[in-house]
Amino acid sequence: MKKIDTQEFKTLVLEGKGACLVDFSATWCGPCQMLAPVLEEISAEGHTVYSVDVDEESPLAMQYMVSSVPTMLFFKDGEKKEQLIGLTPKQTILDKLAYYEN
What we know:
Elements: E1 2-3, H1 6-14, E2 19-25, H2 30-44, E3 49-53, H3 58-63, E4 71-76, E5 79-85, H4 90-101
Parallel strand pairs: 1-3, 2-3
Antiparallel strand pairs: 2-4, 4-5
């Protein structure tokens, strides 16, 4: 899982091809810390997963109306398709990614 800033978000997510997951999180957020290892596993399994720190990239978080963390946004070919808020089971995340990857 790669941590990205606003510029990388533009290049990798908005101009990217295919499906990806962007996790908006914060270092002080307990559920975010619990979700991070799950997202690392998903990334290690070959899925494209990015992480955005809402404190460091607050304008980006505001642009996507992220009001609670963790918030996961699913993108396909640069377009936001769906979002999940809160601690989410790994299989649910994998199912969403599989849907957009196909």
